[in-house]
Structure formats: C-alpha cells, structure tokens
C-alpha cells in the first residue's frame, strides 16, 4: 500500500534527481491537482492510502513532467487572477506576470464605466481568455470580444467564459488582429507574441516544446505584433480609450516608440515581479 505522503516524496525525489527546480513544490502541486486536493489537504492527508487508479494517474503524470511538460499543462488548467482557467494545446499558459496587465488596465476601466455606465473591451490574441475574462469578472457593466487566429484557443476561451458565468458578456471571434473586428472599444488589451524568432530554439523546454509557437514568435525582432496593433488600433479605439500591452523585458523603449509614431502617448509603464518592464498603457494623443 502506498500513502499520499510516500507518493509525494517519490515524485519529489525523481524531480530532484532530474534537476527540475522546485521539486518539492511541483510534486505537491501535481499530485494535489490530480487528486483535487488543496495544498493543506496534501500536507494533512499524508496517511491516506492511494488506490491503484490514483497511483497509475500519478505515475503517468510524473513521467510527463520528467519529459519537461509543465505541471499546469498536465493538470489541464491554471489559476489566474483568482479563477481557474482551462488550458489547451494552442493556448499560452497564463502566467502571474500577465496579471499585472489586468491590474494596470482595471483602474482605467472603472473610470470609463463610472463616466459612461458601460464599457467595451477587445482582447487581441486572447488565448485562454485570461486577460479579458479577468476584467469582465471585475466589471459587470462591461462587455468584450476575445479574438484569436486559433479555433482551439477560441473554443477554450469560450468554455472558460461559460465556466465563469460570463458567456452573455463575452464573444469569441476568429481574427488576424483587427481583420474581422468591427466597431469601437473603450479598452484594447493584448499579450502578443514578442519573443525574437532566433531566441525560441534556446528557450526552456517547458516553453519551447509546449507553448504554441504562434503565441511566442514575434518575428525577427520580436516587434511584429506591436506594429500590427499600433497601425490599426486608432480605427477601433474610442477617442478617450486605452491600450494595454504586455512586453518583453527589454522592449519598453522600442514598443513605446512604435505606438508614439502611430498617434498614442505612453500613460503608464509597470514592472513585473522580477522588476523587469512588463506592461505599457497608452492613450490617444490629444490633437
């Protein structure tokens, strides 16, 4: 008979031997997630005897992690801004740093709702829907569109909206940036692909081999998506609207210059938890 404590210890040891960082945390997170247990329940329920089915599922998951598949991809979901989001093959795994984009845009959204009574959002390259669904959750007066070129991503975003009770205020549209978008929006947000093409082959296996390349590859200089967004955003943004984008750690000046040349001014810049530049917020330049 194998107990929960023994299974966690074995997984931790195997992860540690394989050189995986945070082996103890990942072992608890993986096994707890598989068994639908909180971290506290994993700690306090160590004497629980696992069934053969549970042991088989744990063994399979441990082998997948040893092949560098991320824990949350194995579990099929990840927490983001207080909600659990499904992840699929063609969606980027939501990261904590992206919550900074949500928190940066939220005060502007609340100001707009206070002034107008409602707001419209557009999330370009929505993936799981993480950004826009977090904003809709915080602002009941807001409606929004999440666009993506991936049908798999749009299906996942729509399913996440349904799970959160947000389907009536969220629409998923297949679009290459603004191609199939119409109307104007109070806020446009995006976490676009921003990694240089030549950097992708040397990324950690968890990112390189499991995150979709379309959500990573920003072209030769990593800036292709920002040029596309900045070039057309003025045609879709209200005159008092706001654009919020996530950026790479070394892209603040270049991305700001791209948006300035397209008629926007930098209103705010925020760093991530590692003190790297991560979010830029733009408004329309006054005539």
UniProtKB/TrEMBL annotation:
**Positions contributing to S-adenosyl-L-methionine binding:** 125-129, 148, 177, 191
Instruction: Give the UniProt record's GO annotations in the biological process aspect.
Output: methylation
Q: Where is the Methyltransferase small domain?
A: 114-194
Entries under Gene3D superfamilies matching the protein: DNA helicase RuvA subunit, C-terminal domain, Vaccinia Virus protein VP39
Q: Catalytic activity, per the record? A: L-glutaminyl-[peptide chain release factor] + S-adenosyl-L-methionine = N(5)-methyl-L-glutaminyl-[peptide chain release factor] + S-adenosyl-L-homocysteine + H(+)
The organism sits in which domain of life? Bacteria
- Which EC class, in a word? transferase
Known EC number: 2.1.1.297
Q: Transcription regulation: present as a keyword of the record? A: no
Function summary? Methylates the class 1 translation termination release factors RF1/PrfA and RF2/PrfB on the glutamine residue of the universally conserved GGQ motif.
What is this protein's record name? Release factor glutamine methyltransferase
Annotated source species = Neorhizobium phenanthreniclasticum
Organism lineage string? Bacteria, Pseudomonadati, Pseudomonadota, Alphaproteobacteria, Hyphomicrobiales
Q: Could you tell me the gene encoding this protein?
A: prmC
């Amino acid at each position: 008979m194998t107990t929960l404590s023994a299974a966690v210890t074995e997984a931790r040891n195997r992860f540690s031997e394989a050189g995986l960082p945070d082996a103890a945390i990942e072992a608890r997170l993986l096994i707890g997630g598989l068994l639908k247990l909180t971290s506290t329940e994993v700690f306090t329920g160590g004497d629980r005897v696992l069934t053969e089915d549970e042991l088989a599922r744990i063994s399979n998951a441990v082998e997948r992690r040893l092949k560098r598949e991320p824990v949350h991809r194995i579990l099929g979901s990840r927490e983001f801004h207080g909600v659990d989001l499904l992840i699929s093959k063609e969606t980027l795994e939501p990261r904590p740093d992206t919550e900074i984009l949500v928190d940066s845009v939220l005060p502007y959204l609340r100001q707009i709702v206070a002034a107008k009574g409602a707001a419209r959002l557009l999330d370009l390259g929505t993936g799981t829907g993480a950004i826009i669904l977090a904003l809709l959750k915080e602002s009941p007066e807001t409606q929004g569109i999440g666009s993506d070129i991936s049908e798999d991503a749009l299906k996942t975003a729509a399913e996440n909206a349904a799970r959160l009770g947000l389907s009536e205020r969220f629409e998923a549209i297949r679009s290459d940036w603004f191609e199939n978008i119409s109307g104007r929006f109070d806020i446009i947000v995006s976490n676009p692909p921003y990694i240089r093409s030549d950097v992708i082959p040397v990324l950690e296996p968890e990112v390189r081999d499991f995150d979709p390349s379309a959500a990573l590859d920003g072209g030769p200089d990593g800036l292709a998506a920002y040029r596309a967004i900045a070039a057309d955003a003025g045609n879709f943004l209200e005159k008092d609207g706001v654009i919020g984008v996530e950026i790479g750690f070394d892209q603040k000046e270049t991305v700001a210059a791209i948006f300035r040349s397209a008629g926007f001014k930098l209103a705010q810049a925020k760093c991530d938890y590692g003190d790297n530049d991560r979010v830029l917020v733009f408004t329309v330049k006054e005539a």
